[in-house]
Design a protein that fits this description.
Elements: E1 3-13, E2 18-24, E3 27-32, E4 37-42, E5 47-52, E6 69-75, E7 78-83, E8 92-97, E9 103-108, H1 110-120, E10 129-134, E11 138-143, E12 153-158, E13 168-172, E14 183-191, E15 194-203, E16 212-222, E17 227-235, E18 240-248, E19 252-259, E20 267-276
């Protein structure tokens, strides 16, 4: 069991529906599932900058047309951003220079997502990528089991780039529920050969429609065995989506989390979570 403390650390005005975090050099990189901007927030100066991820970028895009950027990870000097794949228009992969924030490339990875569905047996109503980790050799994509089948799982794709011809495997992960409501992955990061993740309980059997939130848990998966190490419920009312490691010691880990408010309010609440072993 872990002891934990959770507190609202600060609010960022100008970002709505925050869905993913990457912390690099005291700069918090934030994506939103209703936006085609990458946001960089300087922790020391509290300065926010928007960086376009497409031509004609905008905020508060309608649910039907949004690219649904839900997953972000970093490796070396690049950031990698992915659409959730939960509808046909949500299959973009955007590579960004981590320092300049300039877009390096944009790819449609619909063929990769189709192969992932084939390998896992997930249909389009149950495919919803919400977290990604890249080690330089392998990609780990977490599928949120908030469709009718309720299948949370981890896709592993070998190679420097995810392609439809890459070696792809899928391991289903069984997660505990909260108050009888199933939880589903909402973000993930890599820490010392373990995938730390968030999973939220939302009373909806749809990857498209939102539902009543019953809380969020944190946990980790051992990459070598692809088995759960632990889970710990950290809230009974928040839907946390973004996760970043702030610092760690031998007996304590400190994370930053963002809350997806599922509204058009341009305010991102950033929380600090401390886990003590």
């Amino acid at each position: 069991m872990y002891k934990f403390t959770l507190e609202l650390l600060f609010q960022i005005i100008g970002i709505g529906s925050a869905s993913g975090l990457v912390l690099k050099n005291d700069q918090l990189n934030v994506i939103s599932d209703y936006s085609t901007f990458l946001y960089s927030y300087e922790l020391k100066s509290a300065h926010l900058t928007r960086h376009p991820l497409s031509t004609g970028p905008s905020q508060n895009i309608t649910k039907k047309t949004k690219p649904d950027f839900e997953a972000i990870t970093s490796y070396g000097d690049q950031l990698y951003i992915f659409g959730s794949g939960s509808t046909e228009n949500r299959s973009q992969m955007v590579s960004v220079n981590a320092k300049s924030k300039q877009v390096i490339s944009t790819r449609d990875v619909a063929d990769v997502y189709q192969e992932m569905r084939r390998v896992s047996g997930l249909n389009s109503e149950n495919f919803n990528l919400e977290g990604v980790v890249f080690t330089g050799k392998e990609w780990y994509f977490l599928n949120r089991g908030n469709g009718g089948a309720g299948r949370n799982g981890v896709f592993v794709i070998s190679g420097e780039k995810p392609t439809a011809t890459s070696k792809i495997t899928f391991k289903e992960i069984l997660l505990p529920g909260i108050k009888g409501v199933a939880t589903g992955f909402t973000d993930a990061i890599l820490v010392d050969h373990h995938i730390y993740f968030l999973a939220a309980a939302e009373d909806s059997q749809s990857t498209y429609q939102d539902g009543v939130v019953f809380g969020t848990l944190i946990g980790s998966i051992n990459i070598a065995q692809m088995e759960l190490d632990f889970t710990e419920q950290i809230s009974d009312r928040h839907k946390f989506e973004g996760l970043a490691l702030k610092h760690q010691t031998a007996d304590e880990m400190t994370f930053l989390l963002c809350e997806d408010n599922d509204t058009d309010k341009l305010q991102a609440d950033i929380y600090q979570l401390k886990l003590k072993r």
